[in-house]
Design a protein that fits this description.
The chain is 23% helix and 39% strand. The chain is of the alpha+beta class and 228 residues long. α1 packs antiparallel against α2.
Length: 228
């Protein structure tokens, strides 16, 4: 495997109780428009509606039941949102722990960028179906073609070629793979890189691992190749 490679890579007066509320801000500058109506505000409006309804024409029981059901649904949605936020927070924490555990291990991740230091590297790619022939093109950071490697018939799934980059200036390079089937049709090819994890960074809910000087999104890691 590669020693050093990384990724770049109720209604009342005709007004719907679920409509947006307009709340005074206590000053002469006007009102503040709220984009959402919370369950507390909904319940306060329902109580106010009951207190100010016409005694000679009280709210129909069906309408009242419908508004209570509306309130119940609002409360359930609010509780569900809170639960989802908790689950999301736990998932981020779990990802952070798992990412830290990868330090010192060699991983494989989706990507096409490599850090070259003069030692041979293995270029890994995956074919969506069998190919009759293919081309691996390697470019420097400026986009200039450095090397083109022709490959013959290969099976669907993971494949690789060796690149003897001795004499090549150290730095970042990237590669692309093209392949065709027996009918001469283009085959989808995905590229992968491997490298040893040297660190982990956290930015809000985003988790990145470091392979050398390059950050790799944690979600791009597909497997752990080796490590203690």
């Amino acid at each position: 495997m590669v020693e050093s490679a990384s990724l770049r890579k109720g209604t009342s007066g005709g007004q719907d109780m679920s409509s947006v509320a307009s709340v005074g801000n206590g000053s002469s500058t006007g009102t503040i428009q709220k984009n959402t109506l919370g369950k507390d505000e909904f319940f306060q409006m329902l109580i106010a509606q009951l207190k100010h309804q016409d005694p000679l024409n009280p709210m129909d029981g069906t309408d009242f039941t419908a508004q209570l059901a509306q309130f119940s649904s609002l409360e359930q949605l609010s509780n569900m949102n809170a639960s989802l936020e908790t689950v999301a927070a736990h998932q981020v924490f779990a990802n952070q722990i798992e990412a830290v555990s990868l330090i010192g291990k060699e991983i494989a991740a989706q990507g096409d960028v490599m850090e070259i230091d003069g030692t041979p590297v293995t270029l890994i790619y995956s074919a969506a179906e069998n190919i009759s022939k293919g081309t691996v093109s390697i470019y420097n950071s400026s986009g200039s073609l450095v090397k083109k490697i022709e490959v013959g018939s290969q099976q669907q799934g993971l494949n690789s070629v060796q690149w003897d980059c001795s004499g090549i200036e150290s730095g970042s390079y990237y590669f692309a793979v093209e392949g065709t089937n027996l009918q001469g049709e283009s085959v989808n090819m995905d590229t992968y890189v491997t490298g040893t994890v040297t660190g982990v960074t956290f930015n809000g809910g985003s988790v990145h691992i470091q392979i050398g000087d390059v950050d790799v999104p944690f979600e791009d890691v597909v497997s752990v190749v080796s490590g203690t």
